[in-house]
Structure prediction request, 115 residues.
Amino acid sequence: MKKVVILTFYSIFSYSMCSMFKFNLEKQYADSPPRELFSDGEEYSILAVGEDIDHSEEIMGLNQVRYFSSLEEVKNQYPDLKVEGSPFFIIFNDKEVVLRTSELNKAIRFVEENY
Prediction:
């Protein structure tokens, strides 16, 4: 009888701990941008809204540019990014958002200076 009580308690405890861990993990990933926006390694990636980046392949440290022509388009695809206007640029490293700005020159300068 004692074993049954201990096993039952252990099962309930284990299930509770797993559920809490899963909830925290899901919340963490729900608050972070999608992985496809992050860069690889030491380079950066940019999400550009309303203004494309000419000759992006010539910018040292820039891995990829995702361009959206309109604010509505980016809000539909990535509503959690909270894009504030157009033009707007969000720079990502391999882990997180590192800069949010409405100035193209500021975005390019950040990538070049921090690469």
